[in-house]
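Schema walk-through. Below, the input block comes first and the output block second. Nothing else is stored per chain. Lengths vary across the set, and this one has 350 residues.
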Amino acid sequence: MLRRIWLLLAATLAGAPAPAAAAQLHVQGTQLVDRGHVVQLRGVNRSGLEYACIQGWGFFDSPHPDQIDDPAMIAAMKSWDINAVRLPLNEDCWLGVNTPAGRGGSPYRQLVSSYVRALHAAGLYVILDLHWAAPGRTKADGQTHMADADHAPAFWRSVAATFRHDHALLFDLFNEPFGIDWRCWRNGCQVPAQGHFPAYRAAGMQALVKAVRSTGATQPLMLGGVNWSGDVRGWLAHEPFDPLHQLVAAEHNYGTLGPCTASCLAGVLATHTRVPLVFGELGETDCADGYIDQIMPWADAHGISYIGWAWNVASCTGEPALISSYDGTPTPFGLGFRDHLRALGVPFRP
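--- output ---
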């Protein structure tokens, strides 16, 4: 198995994408900076790469599930005055384990690399997120408590090696840890069975940081907190060691479903006194924009980045979805998000 993983790593290097021309995105104090410009990431999540492959029917959730988004769709995203796209990934599909024929390994990795190139060509930063993971021979077909020690470090060694020369990029080490404490979050632990997922050994954030840095990759690393990344109040006390000091705290919040309350916002601000902070997923589940209309100006005032969930045609109450059509037609929730971004003007881009 170890030999296979390192052969896979070598293969990913051979198909490494060209980075955005001159970008040098990095952490400087409590800010993200690129070529002397402070960067506030304002963008969208492009969901699909985490689930379509493992379910066997495609790669993207779009009219053309086997292809990357065409230039018109990427242009529609950019017309909202965004500067970043977060891509949720599936570790099984990237590594080529436990996947349906033709949906994992090289085809998946090449498609992700091509999409990153296309987004950069449009002048957009990219966040690569380990979204779905699972231990052993169990399919990564849903949310688990924490990244698994079986595959997640190998996933990050491969992804980081593939993109290590791309400095218009951030790595989001694990989407939404839940059902674990801060000690497990940092160091790993044995987590209990959950649904059809067996009990397994979780890899802590420290092991994932080490996996990325072992490849020579220097990109900023986003680390979501506990409780579905909704709580960062223990983040600083359990911050992993990064020899490059390029860590970014990530928090997810949704109106009605999981809003960031006063104590949550206080925790966000306390964490942001030491490191940059990104709302890696932001939205609301009432098909309206009342919640984000309060959160986004607050984030702007404090220099906090935010990425809306999600650029997918789906229910704006269940998902929630920013668009009702892939031509960029917004849902009522998406309309509030889009209009706020446009009112701010075009952000700094790679």
